[in-house]
Design brief:
ten-stranded mixed sheet; alpha/beta; binds hypoxanthine; about 230 residues
């Protein structure tokens, strides 16, 4: 059983092996996939990394993995930290999310209400693999999803930090859609910056991208181990 990985900014430059490219047509639109021996990888921002967060076709991406028979997805998500003690460079495996707005769904023509959660078994597999490799990961945290592409105001961050630990633009949409299709989903969050106003320093998204694109050898090792273990 092959696993699916959806990665964004934080996986830029991460070498995960040899892949062949494929474009999969789904009833929701096209998805660009990289097919490896034991993993199907979707670069969230597309082949040319130009799809902005609010225009990512999450439905096409999740459906394309479903069509390929993928039953487990690991999302690698770049996030901002809402807490001073949660430092940039950390890896965190979230255990819940908040996304009250703009939630995509596959259920447009029938009344179906899933009860959303991140898959605990898959979360534990990630945590176990990290422990075995001696890679420090924070094992809990709540992810707050915004639409993007703009960052958040200081007032928004002040609100969010009472209820969540991380802010990002993709995990909740992917997790919800995966769950609607019965696919297990868990995330590895790469903390790439402090969210706006958490520290005095002015937040500049170019810096966020720079940070997210740096070589993360620990993340690469963790993903390679998970691909081997979960295939
Ligand atoms: N806000 C929203 N999304 C993000 C951030 C942020 O500060 N950093 C990385 N993704």
């Amino acid at each position: 059983m092959t696993i699916g990985i959806i990665g964004g900014t934080s996986l830029i430059g991460t070498n995960l092996g040899d892949f062949s490219e494929e474009e999969t047509e789904t009833e929701y639109g096209k998805s660009y996939l990289l097919i490896g021996d034991d993993v199907v990888f979707i670069p969230r921002h597309g082949r040319d990394r130009r799809i902005p967060p609010h225009r990512i076709n999450h439905r096409a991406n999740i459906k394309a993995l479903d069509i390929r028979g993928i039953s487990r997805i690991i999302g690698v998500n770049s996030v901002g930290s809402l807490k001073l003690e949660l430092k940039p460079d950390s890896l965190l495996i979230p255990d819940d999310y908040i996304a009250p707005w703009n939630i995509p769904t596959f259920h447009d023509n029938e009344i179906v209400h899933i009860t959303p959660s991140l898959n605990e078994g898959l979360r534990q597999s990630i945590i176990r693999a990290a422990r075995e490799l001696d890679i420090p990961v924070i094992t809990r945290g709540v992810y707050f999803q915004t639409t993007g592409p703009r960052l958040e105001t200081r007032a928004e961050i002040n609100l969010m930090k009472n209820f969540a630990d991380l802010v990002g633009m993709s995990l909740a949409s992917e997790a919800t859609l995966a769950q609607e299709l019965g696919i297990e989903y868990a995330g590895i969050c790469s903390v790439d910056n402090y969210a706006n106003g958490v520290v005095e320093e002015e937040l500049d998204f170019r810096r966020v991208i720079e940070n997210a694109s740096r070589d993360r050898e620990d993340l690469r090792r963790l993903l390679l181990r998970l691909i081997k273990e979960l295939k």
